[in-house]
Amino acid sequence: MKKSLGTAAAIFALMVGASPSAHAFWLGFSATGGIGVGYYSMADLNSHLNTVRQASHIKLDELASGVNFKADGRVWFFDRVAVSGGYQHLWGESVSEGSSTTLDYKTPADIYTLGVVGTLLVLPNVVDLCVGVNRCSAKTVFGTNEVVSRRLAEFTGKSVGFEAYAEVHSNFLNPVEVGLQAGYRGLKIHTLYDRRQAVGFFESGDQMSIDYSGFFFYLTSSIRI
After folding, report:
1. pLDDT digit string, tens, across residues 67-115
2. The dihedral of CA 124, 127, 131, 135: what is its sign?
3. Peptide bond into 175 cis (omega under 30)
4. Do residues 149 and 180 make contact, with C-beta atoms less than 8 angstroms apart?
5. Out of 64-68, 133-137, 150-154, least confident range
6. What φ, ψ does residue 19 adopt, rounded to 5°?
7. How many CB atoms lie within 10 A of CB 155?
8. For residue 31, with 0-12 CB atoms within 10 Å meaning exposed, 13-18 middle and 19 or more buried, which class applies?
9. CA 136, CA 113: separation in Å to the nearest integer?
């Protein structure tokens, strides 16, 4: 985390030192929405799914990715550097196939981000190239019917992590911008709790953890003024 914050400070200093556009007002705002996909590590959960698959002789895929949605707002300074705050929702699910009893594992998460983004390169009337870093505050609700088939038993957990990303977006459709964002998320929730606030364990006896670390991609659309 200290390393990611240091990177953010370095980017901020670099962007503030860059020459702003001669005609740019010093303060601006943008709002962005995006839809994409995230790739998740999920090493502990997938190890458990492999155990379940072998013991039950069912088809149960590892949970490796999910749909991601994001919305964020940015306050721009001199069209070069911005402070960003946003919300993301991550989906993830693995469901067994070819068995009389369907096993379901769901790993949705809500993430709130705070970070800094700066413009590295401007190609007039074409695109802007930006880089940024975020601090992530996440909450997950892991659900499974592995033990009780009639409903999903839910386990909650919280953690913090980081994101580093690069993005390109159009600059010729003002005030609309469309673009692509790609980056890496480091985020693992090490401990989950049941409704009685007891630490959750997989049936194998290993402590539950949910790991969203991995690369992500978004298609984005923004309004910038």
Report:
1. 999 999 999 999 899 999 999 999 999 999 866 678 999 999 999 999 9
2. positive
3. yes
4. no
5. 150-154
6. -80, 120
7. 22
8. middle
9. 5
